[in-house]
Design goal:
Elements lengths: L1 H151 L3 H29 L4 H17 L12 E3 L1 E2 L3 E2 L4 H11 L2 E4 L5 E5 L3 H16 L5 H30 L6 H9 L4 E2 L2 E2 H18 L4 H10 L14 H11 L4 H9 L9 H15 L8 H16 L4 E7 L4 E6 L6 H18 L7 E6 L9
Parallel strand pairs: 9-10
Antiparallel strand pairs: 1-5, 2-3, 4-5, 6-7, 8-9
């Protein structure tokens, strides 16, 4: 009973409190909505303010950027315009200066033109005066010429011919003196004595006894112990091919004849034959190897011989090819004189003369040692051995002093230094000393006869004599047919003819004597 009452009371209370609760919730909702509307309005106004400020800032920034871009474009447009403006101003200034200068030059030109016109008038007046004066001078000159011709008794043409003849005669005499001095090359008696003394001292200081020699041209095949050696023709052909010479058996088959211009090749053949006689070979290949070995051994000896020459003269060694050529001179002879010994001897003599003249003795020795290296190649190359040697020396790096001395020692080149004269003198001294070259009596007599025959073949020669062992020829001419100038010309022609028609060592002096004799009988 009590519980139902309680439940009813509760229901009644709830029914009575329902409107109050609903009213309270409505009021709270209204307040909340009012508050929310207020906050939304407030937030909207705040966002509007921010938006308006952002829009204002963007507008300001856009305006600033637009102004800066406009300013930058203006500057970019004004820079070329300013350059063009400055260029135009400079051109205007230059044009103004040129106009001013042109005006000044025009004024100066007008002034000069007026001066030239005045001078032209003055010159024309003076030319007229000169023409008048020239006519007066010509008249006076002609009058004076007629007066001189009248007093002298000669015309102008006759006087001119006489003066020309006198000038020609004087010029001819002077030219003859120059030619005589140039061809005779005699600076004076004192210089000649000094030169002879110098050469005498040099040849006296040199101590060396070199015998002349002649290489074998025939090799005997007879061995004292084994008798006659049998050398087949195939073996001779093999040796000849290696040595570069001709080998032929004699008719008796007991000797082999060597023929060839290469002295080194003859020596290779001689050594090979001597070895072959002592030790016969089995076939041609063995003979070829034997000859090749002999050639190789001889090449080494020649190179060592060239080095020996440079060492003996105490001069720096030259290019190996030149050293080899110097060694090859040992198998080259001239009138039976060994050319290696001749080169060493000439080098010593040339060095001594250079020392006496206060020149470089080593340069003189070097040039004299190499002066005949061309002879080692004359069997291979055509031409003068002096020219060949000079070309080799230049090609292999020798100095021009040395090369010119080599080329000039037989006058194939001009003498460009004292060393060239010294080399020529040393060459003549070495070849002309007693015992240097062997000549038979028949050859000597034939040389003298040929020399006198050539000289006497010229016209207007009265007599000719070869003196000093053929080193000089003295020619006597007819005084009434050959004058002084003719004597000079005759000596030159005689010397040239002797050089062309004869072969001789050293030099031959040609002396033309024109003797005037006046005779009268006393009765």
């Amino acid at each position: 009973m009590s519980s139902s009452v309680t439940l009813a009371a509760l229901v009644a209370a709830a029914v009575a409190a329902g409107p109050a609760l609903w009213l309270g919730r409505w009021r709270r909702r209204r307040d909340y909505e009012a508050q929310a509307r207020f906050e939304a309005n407030d937030e909207a106004e705040s966002l509007c303010r921010v938006a308006r400020e952002e829009a204002r800032r963007l507008v300001l920034e856009a305006g600033v950027r637009a102004r800066e871009e406009a300013l930058e474009r203006r500057r970019g447009a004004e820079a070329p315009l300013g350059a063009q403006r400055r260029k135009h101003e400079a051109l205007s200034l230059a044009v103004a200066k040129r106009d001013a200068a042109l005006a000044i030059k025009r004024t100066e030109l007008d002034r000069v033109r007026s001066q030239m016109e005045r001078r032209a008038k003055t010159v024309k007046t003076r030319e007229q005066d000169v023409a008048v004066a020239r006519k007066e001078f010509e008249a006076l000159h002609e009058s004076a010429r007629r007066e001189l011709e009248s007093r002298a008794g000669l015309t102008r043409e006759e006087v001119k011919k006489a003066l020309v003849a006198q000038a020609v005669e004087q010029a001819t005499a002077e030219a003859a003196n120059v030619v005589r001095a140039a061809e005779q090359l005699t600076p004076g008696a004192e210089h000649g004595r000094m030169a002879k003394r110098l050469m005498g001292l040099s040849i006296g200081r040199f101590h060396g006894h070199y015998l002349t020699e002649r290489h074998l041209s025939v090799i005997s095949l007879i061995d004292p112990r084994r008798g006659r050696a049998n050398v087949p023709t195939e073996a001779l052909e093999a040796i000849a091919q290696v040595a570069g010479v001709h080998l032929t058996l004699t008719d008796e088959q007991d000797a082999v004849r060597l023929e060839g211009l290469d002295g080194v090749g003859r020596e290779v053949a001689r050594r090979s034959l001597n070895r072959l006689i002592k030790r016969p070979a089995r076939n041609a290949d063995d003979v070829t190897r034997l000859a090749q070995n002999q050639k190789t051994q001889l090449d080494k000896e020649l190179l060592e011989l060239g080095r020996k020459a440079f060492a003996a003269l105490q001069i720096p060694r030259a290019h190996p090819e030149i050293v080899d050529l110097v060694g090859r001179l040992n198998y080259r002879t001239s009138f039976t004189q060994n050319q290696w010994k001749h080169a060493v001897e000439a080098a010593f003599l040339c060095g001594m003369m250079a020392e006496e003249l206060k020149l470089d003795a080593k340069v003189a020795r070097r040039a004299a040692l190499m002066h005949d290296i061309g002879k080692a190649l004359t069997h291979e190359i055509d031409g003068s051995h002096a020219v060949i040697g000079a070309d080799i020396a230049r090609r292999l790096g020798e100095s021009e002093l040395v090369a010119n001395a080599i080329g000039a020692h037989h006058t194939d080149e001009p003498f460009n230094s004292p060393y060239a004269f010294l080399v020529a003198a040393a060459d003549a001294l070495s070849g002309a000393r007693p015992g240097a070259r062997r000549q038979t009596e028949d050859n000597y007599v034939g040389k003298i006869a040929d020399l006198e025959r050539i000289v006497r073949g010229f016209r207007d020669i009265q007599e000719a004599f070869a003196v000093q062992g053929g080193r000089e020829v003295r020619v006597y001419v007819k005084e009434d047919r050959v004058d002084d100038l003719g004597a000079i010309d005759l000596s030159s022609r005689l010397a040239q003819t002797i050089s062309d028609e004869m072969t001789f060592p050293g030099q031959i002096r040609v002396t033309v004597i024109r003797e005037f004799r006046a005779e009268e009988n006393a009765g």
